[in-house]
What does this fold into?
Amino acid sequence: MSSSKSKSSDKHIVYREFGGNENSAAFERATPELPPKQQDLRVQATRAGRKGKTVTVITGFQTKPEVLADLVKQLKSQCGSGGTVKDNEIEIQGDHKQKILEILIKLGYKAKISGG
It folds into this structure.
């Protein structure tokens, strides 16, 4: 049996639920943009899943990724260590709970230290 189908048949869509990729912006998860005073943040130092390295994790953000990127840059420079944004959370290398709490409160965020 010889197969003489053209390459265009590979793009034939048999079934598509919820339309196509042309309206992918409609399926993106909306992040509510709240002012800093209305955000309830938790600052916690943890070593779980990081091979024994301590990191300070700030959770509870309800803002755009651009704002988080600016905030993590400021926190990294003031703590003198590295850090990143993962899954709408900020991770700063090392145990900087108290320093980060003071910085966030000065910026107008409602923040608390969580955990022991």
The chain has a mean pLDDT of 84. The CA atoms of residues 33 and 116 lie 30 Å apart.
